[in-house]
Structure formats: structure tokens, C-alpha cells
Design a protein that fits this description.
The protein is mainly alpha-helical and 146 residues long. The protein contains six helices and three strands. 42% of the residues lie in helices and 9% in strands.
């Protein structure tokens, strides 16, 4: 599931990274659409028309928790992967998460976030965000160097 508000420039890449995940069994992507003003809603409808796995739900309050709850109520599957519209999942992310859930019996698992950027400014912010001083050397936020 993905809460979405004014993400036209990022939505298509985020959706593609989710839909390209290889997992056993059926999948869907529920987009919780806030009242975007940049064409995001129109793009989301185009994407949904081109792929039956994409389900749209309204989030008129534009609050992430409200959108997530609406997406949960709409979802047809028992396991949920939450993704932001500014995110791109690495190949195998969903499979590894599902395997970890099954192996450990945990209620919730996650992965390491690595910030990237498209523009020079975004790349500079991402580099600072990914640095050990910014992350406090916590493994949950550190990314591998390379």
C-alpha cells in the first residue's frame, strides 16, 4: 500500500518498483490518493487502468494514517507492505520480507532505507542522510557504501 499526495514526478517509478516484485501468490497495490494538485490523481488513474493489480482508494483528509487505514480496509490480502510514493523497492525486497516473516514469526519486518536523489541538491541531502553521523550509526537507517 502506498499513501500518495502530489507525487506525479515519482509515482510511476515507485509503482513500477512495487509491481516488479516477484512473490508467490497474488498481489495488489492499493494507492491511497490524497487531494493532489499536480496531476498525481490523473496519473494514478491511468496506471490503474493499465494494470488490474492497482487499486485506488480516496484519502480526502490527506493524512497518511487515514490513507493507510483506508488502504488496509480495501486490501484483499492478509500481509501488507507499506511503501512511500517517493520510494523504489530494490529487487527481491518483498520476497525477503515475506520470507523473514515466515521464518521468524514476527508481526512486522522492514528493510534498510537508503536515500538517493535525482537532482544535485537531492543527492547532497541523500549523502548527508546516509552518513553515519546523520543516522547515529543505527543499522536500521545505515546503507551499505559503494
Amino acid at each position: 500500500m502506498m499513501p500518495v499526495l502530489n507525487e506525479r514526478d515519482y509515482l510511476e517509478h515507485a509503482v513500477a518498483s512495487v509491481l516488479s516484485q516477484e512473490v508467490d501468490g497474488p498481489t495488489e497495490l492499493v494507492l491511497a490518493l490524497g487531494p493532489s494538485t499536480d496531476g498525481t490523481t490523473e496519473l494514478a488513474h491511468e496506471l490503474a487502468e493499465s494494470d488490474a493489480r492497482i487499486v485506488l482508494v480516496d484519502n480526502p483528509a490527506a493524512h497518511i494514517p487515514v490513507g493507510l487505514n483506508a488502504a488496509i480496509r480495501t486490501s484483499r490480502h492478509p500481509t501488507i507492505i507499506r511503501v512511500d510514493a517517493h520510494s523504489e523497492l530494490s529487487p527481491g525486497y518483498a520476497r525477503r520480507g515475506l520470507e523473514t516473516l515466515a521464518r521468524t514469526g514476527a508481526a512486522n519486518v522492514g528493510g534498510i532505507m537508503r536515500a538517493d536523489g535525482r537532482s544535485a541538491f537531492q543527492r547532497a541531502v541523500a549523502r548527508a542522510y546516509n552518513s553515519p553521523p546523520a543516522s547515529g550509526r543505527r543499522l536500521s537507517r545505515r546503507c551499505p557504501r559503494g
